[in-house]
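Extended Data, panel c. Modelled sequence:
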Amino acid sequence: MTHFAWIGLGNMGAPMAGNLVKAGHTVTGFDLSEKAVQTAVEHGVTAAGSVAEAVQDADVVITMLPKGEHVREVYTQDGGVFASARQGTLLMDSSTVDIETSQWCHDEAPKHGYRFVDSPVSGGISGAAAGTLAFMIGGEEKDVAEAMEHVKPMAGNVFNAGGATAGIAAKIANNMMLFIAQMACSEGSQLAKHLGLDPKTFWEIASASSGRSWPQQTWYPVAGIIDSAAANNDFEATFRADLAIKDVSLALAAGEKAGLHLEAATLACEQLNRLADEGLGDKDCSLVVKYVTPGRTQEEI
């Protein structure tokens, strides 16, 4: 049995931590949100009153936080991870952050006596609940091998992505592809409808054809087709548009640094930013479908 500390018990963190508890491990968790902590407690997590309390007896510390700046703060603040965790503890960051923050973690953790791997995930809230996430892990070979064992109760697939920052690099590139594919679902679903095809029939055709993709299978932006789609619930978020903006922006920043022209990703980011500009940043990212059919309400999509 392993004692985990979990910092960041949001929509992903709480069910992920709960799956570790189901596997027989001890998880002590902390979040600034009392509601998030209570949800995690319902999943079997032991609540801590501070980062220091959460990490002091842990064998492994996992962070799942919104931005890179939050990861750095949790590590370096008074009573933070570097000040409070036991020397030699394995630190795992499953947040989606910029490459620079991930490299900073790899550089700083050993200076303070810790080991570190970047361990981002793909699969969304449904995958977090079901324990079917894909983990992409980067770091020193020995630490990656250990981390791969630790995440098994939460994972459907676990990948050794390579050295330092390889996991987060894979995550950023993957999520860029995801939001580009979501645009394809938006445009394809609405064109099929406009051409008189039954929506369910067209979805089944795409599922057996070259139009098949993860968002087409999971986030299809037409109500009544697949149970996991936000379109069934007035586009209440399963993946918030403002968080999607963050992910695509990370990809664009990395692409700019590499001298790449990421035109489709740029368009995806523009559409997501339109949602935010309209006050819809807390809605599901699949609501970009509204830009295919100007003038129609969400109910008419």
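The mean pLDDT is 96. This feature is highlighted in the accompanying rendering.
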